[in-house]
């Protein structure tokens, strides 16, 4: 699975306004809705499901990244949004540090294996210091897309 196939290009937010976890989740869901990649009629259900998932353990995994995610019966297509924050988001991360890069993943409940594959693709890249560094330095949607393409082509150092 490739990042460029997973991430909705029009739902890349290079300058997140949110500074708190819940606000960042709202902002990224809204980006997916505005891009046409998520259904506006289930906005509140998607947000509630993600926040409920966060109650079971933060998806702020440390090193400045978070991957809020959910499988939901009313989600039709697996898709991700990316949000970048200059100031950092209080995400209740495991290392207690601010989060600067957020991948928000939505998946249909009927596709658990594909959800796991998508998570693996995201985590494999977020584990690379170079990927996190370049992602955090990206200032535009185009720069993020270019980085995703390089990651898919395995052109980044580990």
Structure description:
This protein is α/β, with parallel strands linked by helices and 158 residues long. The longest helix has 15 residues. It has six helices and six strands, in the order αβααβββββααα.
Reconstruct the topology from this structure.
Layout: H1 3-6, E1 7-13, H2 21-34, H3 43-55, E2 60-62, E3 65-66, E4 69-72, E5 79-89, E6 99-108, H4 112-126, H5 129-137, H6 141-152
Parallel strand pairs: 1-5, 3-6, 4-6
Antiparallel strand pairs: 2-3, 5-6
Helix pairs in contact: 2-3
Number of DSSP E strands: 6
Beta fraction: 15-25%
Taken in chain order, the helices and strands follow as: HEHHEEEEEHHH
Major sheet description: 6 strands, mixed
Distance between the termini: 18 Å
Helix content: 40-55%
Which runs of at least 5 residues are low in confidence (pLDDT < 50)?
Answer: none
Overall average pLDDT: 95
Rounded radius of gyration (Å): 14 Å
* Number of discrete helical segments: 6
- Shape descriptor reads globular
**Which class of secondary structure composition applies to the elements?**
alpha/beta
């Amino acid at each position: 699975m490739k990042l460029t196939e997973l991430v909705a290009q029009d739902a890349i937010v290079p300058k997140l306004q949110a500074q708190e976890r819940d606000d960042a989740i709202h902002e990224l869901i809204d980006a997916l809705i505005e891009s046409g990649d998520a259904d506006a009629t289930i906005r509140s259900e998607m947000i509630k499901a993600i926040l409920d998932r966060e109650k079971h353990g933060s998806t702020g995994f440390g090193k400045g990244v978070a991957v809020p995610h959910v499988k939901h019966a009313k989600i039709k297509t697996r898709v991700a949004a990316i949000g970048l924050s200059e100031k950092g988001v209080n995400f209740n991360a495991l290392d207690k540090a601010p989060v600067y890069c957020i991948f928000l993943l939505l998946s249909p409940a009927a596709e658990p294996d594909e959800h796991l594959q998508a998570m693996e693709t995201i985590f494999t890249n977020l584990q690379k210091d170079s990927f996190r560094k370049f992602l955090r330095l990206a200032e535009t949607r185009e720069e993020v897309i270019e980085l995703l393409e390089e990651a898919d082509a395995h052109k980044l150092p580990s």
